[in-house]
Amino acid sequence: MGQERGLFKVEVAGCAGQIDLMKSPRYLIVFAAIAAVAGLMFVYNSKDWIIRSAVVKAVEDATGVSAHLGSLRIELLKGEGVLKDFRMGNPKGFSREDLISIKEGKVVVDATSLTSAVMRIKSVEMNGVGILFEGSGKRNNMNALKAQINDRSAKPKTGKEEKTKKIRIDSFVLKSVQVDVRMAGIVKVGNLDLGDIRMSNLGGTSGASASDIAAQVSNEIASRATTGVIRNMAKLAEQMGMDVSKIADGFGVPTDVLNEAAGFLQNLFK
User: Fold this and answer.
1) Residues 6+ apart with CB under 8 A from 268
2) Which domain holds residue 188?
3) How many domains does the chain fold into?
4) Rounded-to-10 torsion of CA 197, 259, 184, 102
5) Is 229 part of any domain?
6) What is the pTM of this model?
7) Is 252 helix (H, G, I), strand (E, B) or coil?
8) Is residue 109 in some structural domain?
9) pLDDT digits (tens, 9 = 90+) for 178-191
10) Distance of alpha carbon 89 from alpha carbon 63, whole angstroms
């Protein structure tokens, strides 16, 4: 019994010793450091997922349509990133086809700006870009998208949105953009090659929120696609086996624009 009591006392003493050691500031600092390192490792390993989710949310908040980003790999030390399989859905009232699809893109970031108030992205280059211009019921998906963007941009910013990190992009390029032109009830599809779409100084010197940048880019893409369709209306009508007036009416194109596209240039002020 004495030995058992002795052993019991040793175990209690040992436990008491451990408890005292745990209360030591030196050990608390060590454990805090370990926890901090573990947290940093988690953030570093999860950074791609965090940034990818932020990109998708920014696009959806700015445009009101669904967005998808297949993968995003960021090398913070190199200041480089690669994204693949980006897609943006159509507004309501149109087909379930993707309005914009991008196979892959490259991003170059100024690594020194990551901790500053405004993050500077030197360049964004997108490849394998496809755009769907769709007409339905005398309206088109590009005008519908721009209307949604404008409605959302007009809403007052919340305090949380005002405090989000700002971004500026020196150069944003979509390479060799291909446009499929479709109309509800018409089987044949028109095709246009828009070439490169280039944008610069997005966000300005003071930067803008990710959603504001997404709105600016989406608006520009919609405008360029619409301009391309209008300028090539006669060509598209031939591709789709339709009369120019009918295809223009189906896209909701004004009559004066139709006349110019069809080759009947008129000056209404003479």
Assistant:
1) 256
2) 54-262
3) 1
4) 0
5) yes
6) 0.76
7) coil
8) yes
9) 999 998 888 889 99
10) 10
